[in-house]
Records
---
Amino acid sequence: MRKNAGWLATLTAALAVAAGLAAAPAAAAPDMSLKDTMKKMQAQVLNGDAKPLVGMFDATKVKGKPEFANWNAMSDKGKAAAAKGDLDGAKATCKECHDAYRSDYKTKYGSRAP
Ligand code: HEC
């Protein structure tokens, strides 16, 4: 019986380690949510109607990080243009943000995050 209890303790410990290992990669998984929003934005731009972009710029804005100093301003600018139906103005902010932050965001927090 003593021998069995020891075996059970070892098994319990092994299971705990396995559960810990399983949880770790999930917590560090890349965040695909902004990329998903971006795909919708792209589709909407191709659609040619600026108005539905308003909510997508909001969704983009909340994904910003403090070190991306102009992220919020760019999102707001895009949103304002979209609200006016100014598709070219909205598109200009897509490029502005991509040039400034896309690759950093992608590798640190986004679809290519470790
Ligand atoms: C404030 C920042 C910001 C704005 C504004 C912005 N984007 Fe992005 N965009 C990003 C970032 C960051 C990524 C990378 C996301 C990732 O891969 O995790 C990205 C990625 C993309 C991608 C690539 C998606 C893929 O499949 O890899 C497309 C397409 C895209 N954006 C389109 C747009 C369009 C169209 C607009 C404007 C209507 C726009 N974006 C506005 C930050 C922005």
---
Amino acid sequence: MDTVKQLKWRYATKKFDAQKKLSKEKLEVLKQAFNLTATSYGLQTIKMVVLENKAVREPLVEHAFNQKQVLDASHLLIICIQNNILDEDVVKYYDNIKGIRNTAETILKPYREGLIQMMEKMSVDERQRWSTNQAYIALGNLMTVCAMESIDSCPMEGFVPAKFDDILKLTDKGLKSVLLLPVGYRAEDDMFSEFKKVRKPIEEAVVEI
Ligand SMILES: Cc1cc2nc3c(=O)[nH]c(=O)nc-3n(C[C@H](O)[C@H](O)[C@H](O)COP(=O)(O)O)c2cc1C
């Protein structure tokens, strides 16, 4: 697989083929890619909502500045953050390490207490911003995996999160939407697929010291 070739193949898809669906296997790869995304401390205070139902997606379009990708893509991935990070999230995380790696409590205790203290020093806003940083890492990871799997995608900040949260009842799940990633297959007549990539010369983008 030619990595650069696939990265050049990828573009922010403006028009999806509404008839083409991702296979279960492809969707599974994207779920795995999301879950395998690195997060700060490994705490995973983000979640990915997978939305396929078009009737549920229809009313979302107007709250995404009428960007039709939200409806036409095979699936709409919504990257969310937790509304808050509680002590119990940190405790659960270290319990998971204990269960999976059989790590001794004496080793884990100082790390767990240190992380709880760090979170307690942050305001809810700061915790949300911290989680949002993780959401962007997941977005980048998913976009690259999509490119490698020849899946089209469009990263999107252009929507009204409060409306999405309300319509999809994400608040009831303790979540806030922060990013969208419609995924599927480009429409044959999406003219953007023919456009040349606009990037700075590599010597300008990359600083070698
Ligand atoms: C965080 C982020 C948010 C974006 N939001 C939107 C959006 O709401 N709608 C859209 O059509 N494109 C959106 N884009 C796509 C960018 O405009 C696009 O990636 C950029 O112009 C480079 O083009 P390329 O991805 O086709 O190479 C977004 C990209 C990123 C990374």
